[in-house]
């Protein structure tokens, strides 16, 4: 099992203009009067309206260490921090050139290189930041949940797709005592493997679009009849969940079958060319809801299945997002230990290819989906609703939709309507949470 190290996290482009509090705190901690000796550097590029920070990211395979001719750089296997031995450093400066992130600096006066060492686990830059741009993340709780990797290395998903991260993390939490069910969709290709090799180390059943929940029900009943406790788990797209397979899903939910139904929602039929599904949001452009003369994208709103599952009365319902891994891990673990009925997890899974977004934008989109309340994180344990990530000051939905081309046609008036719909859905969920009693229908 690999180590998971704590890390300093910096929110992208979130620093207030001209703020240098983190730099000042770092210089003070290291005993320097000159601010240039700080190990963290604010970046204020006013011309392109960027305000952020730059520092060492403590690489897993540090290029600075590999290129150092004096052997003065070492990555500690206990805390993961890359440190420079200033006594051994010969001042060649090669490490500053080799670092792809600009996180190693050179002191002309001492003729030595220097870099961030996270203040040995107590970073003063984080403590000095009053804007919550910097935070210190403890990664070990995630590792404590992980079992053996059940998915083969590599993936055939499109570049930037987060569904592989979801499935790999899901299977590492569930472990070997799992039977995986799937339907046609984006993930089924790399869940199959390439004959004669399998892609997973688990028993897997590939179903039709419309019968996955029914097939899971039969399997669950069989294993219960022989007295064996097995994780009966689906990993399906939104098309087979909210549209084609909804009848079987609704029947399983009404009976509260002992299964774990997981859906990765990319808001459309992406595997076959970005057609609209019941999960496609209002006004979104797809190949079957085009934008043109007399057409403004999808004319209907999205079918919000998490609430539908709640009103079916199943044991556990939750939404999850890969940008909040601890929340996802906790919810999946709770679903795995829910033994008296059905669990339903709805995962938000952006599709950069279909949505017209940059390949490296998936996590940014995931975060903004939560921060704008487009995809709120909540759960209902036996009908009792709780919002897991209350956003004190939600960002404008405009900031979210600007990351993708599928909303490129939106007018200011349409933007206002979209925002009203997001606010209305969130208010509904919040009202259910404020009841402080189980929802029963």
Low-confidence stretches: none
Choose one word for the global shape.
Answer: globular
Q: Largest sheet at a glance?
A: 8 strands, mixed
Q: Tell me the number of structural domains.
A: 2
Report mean pLDDT, rounded to a whole number. Answer: 92
Count of extended strands: 18
Work out the helicity level. 25-40%
> Helices and strands: which structural class?
alpha/beta
- Count of discrete alpha- or pi-helical segments spanning 4 or more residues: 16
CATH superfamily of the largest domain: Thiamin diphosphate (ThDP)-binding fold, Pyr/PP domains
- Name the CATH class of the largest domain: Alpha Beta
Strand order of the largest sheet: 10-9-11-12-16-15-17-18
How is this structure best summarized?
The chain has 441 residues and is α/β, with parallel strands linked by helices. It contains 16 helices and 18 strands. It has helices at 21-29, 63-67, 94-98, 124-128, 140-145, 163-174, 188-192, 212-225, 238-244, 246-255, 305-312, 325-336, 352-355, 362-371, 397-401, 412-434; strands at 7-10, 41-45, 50-54, 73-75, 82-84, 104-107, 112-115, 134-137, 178-182, 203-206, 231-237, 260-265, 291-292, 295-296, 316-321, 343-348, 378-381, 384-387.
